[in-house]
Amino acid sequence: MNNALIFDPELLQRYDLSGPRYTSYPTAVQFHEGFGEEAYREAIAASNTAARPLSLYVHLPFCGVVCYYCACNKIITANRKRASPYLADLHREIELQSALFTPGREVRQLHWGGGTPTFISDEEMSALMNKLRGHFTFLDNDEGDYSIEIDPREVTPAKIAHLRQLGFNRMSFGVQDFDPVVQKAVNRIQTVKETFDAVDAARANGFKSINIDLIYGLPFQTVDSFAVTLEKILELSPDRLSVFNYAHMPHLFKVQKQMDADTLPSPAVKLAILQYVIEKLTAEGYVYIGMDHFAKPDDELALAQEHGTLYRNFQGYSTHAGCDLVAMGITSIGMVDDTYSQNVKSLEEYHERVSAGKLPVYRGVKLTEDDKLRRAVITELICHFSVDMAAMGHAWNIDFSTYFAKELAQLQDMAADGLINLSDGRIQVQPRGRLLIRNVCMVFDAYLKNEESKKRFSRVI
């Protein structure tokens, strides 16, 4: 596919609205407590009939130190023993969940997220992985995508070697920024050496994919300071890079109030940083996948996009569109059959439910046919920047132009601005529109009815 990008500051500023990141459609805003354990069990039964392979997500919420920008579901504590009772409950949930899925369904994908997954000890990690392997069917030929999020401050070469022995073959390293002034402002002090040592250890132990996370829009950042960070990161030659736009939403995430909003870069500076990042990474040969993600041309994400098989879920872009996602641990979100579901948020309620032999699902949503159709359109747009209207209509037994007449009328303004092309029976996102793909997707979102609902989402740029 054509991966060209055109950076148009005037258009980017004009279209810089708030909107979903579309790790799901409908988004989590539409989850409701009318969907509970019984509905989730019904979804598993339907999933067993389809017998799709599985993707497992395990949430380990503990962090030793809080990062002020963080919008993740986490528990801040210096007491490592606090993880023990939670892990016992997590083991119990693994037993409860696995008993409902037909044995033998392959686990093609695994992800441990947080929090900081390596907050727990080597022994606890071994016990958790053994529990998962004892209750689900893992691939033992290193062909599965088994990944873990890493804080370089929390690992040693020995711990990384241990993770490889457990079967992990992908790592995602949080860096955000190397500038000491920025690090102090966000309460994340992390040296270049810690990061380089961790990545070197991962490579030495045969991890086949390295991702590094950066954030632009943090306090005191400038184009020049971020350029220094990016140059250092490129020395590591990561397979993938995620360069996220910091969303300052203290009304939703109270910890962000610890940062002085007056020190955040202006929208113009943020745009300049983004432009520098895009130009630098594309010049270095990285492919812009979309939504802040870059990958080397031979990376599986880039190849999946080229072949039209890229997918997007709660972990971001994925090559495993055909899996049911089973999520375990507090706050975790799964996707089983035509449903989304989320576990309870507190340790106390989680313990109460799993101790009683109950699944900890407390809310979710069952997709309607319209939801599934719109999800298919949004997925094509956000993954491949194109929709073949005739093919989509045939697949869903609709006349696309009639069904989406209102949406196609709305797209005319974007077409006039050069964001998209509507000729030849396709919606084709143009180089000017690729950075604004969330805006294009929002046209097909039936739930964005008022400005109040948009306040829950970050700005698109």
From TrEMBL:
Cofactor names: [4Fe-4S] cluster
One Gene Ontology molecular-function label: metal ion binding
Cofactor note: Binds 1 [4Fe-4S] cluster. The cluster is coordinated with 3 cysteines and an exchangeable S-adenosyl-L-methionine.
Primary residence: cytoplasm
Keywords noted in UniProt: 4Fe-4S, Cytoplasm, Iron, Iron-sulfur, Metal-binding, Oxidoreductase, Porphyrin biosynthesis, S-adenosyl-L-methionine
Family: Belongs to the anaerobic coproporphyrinogen-III oxidase family.
A cellular-component GO term for this protein: cytoplasm
Coiled-coil stretches noted in the UniProt entry, renumbered to this chain: none
Protein name: Coproporphyrinogen-III oxidase
Radical SAM core domain: residues covered: 48-284
Keyword DNA-binding: no
UniProt binding sites for S-adenosyl-L-methionine 2: Y69, C70, A71, G115, T116, Q176, R188, D213, A247
Pathway: Porphyrin-containing compound metabolism; protoporphyrin-IX biosynthesis; protoporphyrinogen-IX from coproporphyrinogen-III (AdoMet route): step 1/1
Function in brief: Involved in the heme biosynthesis. Catalyzes the anaerobic oxidative decarboxylation of propionate groups of rings A and B of coproporphyrinogen III to yield the vinyl groups in protoporphyrinogen IX.
Enzyme class: oxidoreductase
GO BP annotation list: protoporphyrinogen IX biosynthetic process
Binding site for S-adenosyl-L-methionine 1: Y57, G114, E149, I333
Reactions that this protein is recorded to catalyse: coproporphyrinogen III + 2 S-adenosyl-L-methionine = protoporphyrinogen IX + 2 5'-deoxyadenosine + 2 L-methionine + 2 CO2
Compartments it resides in: Cytoplasm
Subunit and partners: Monomer.
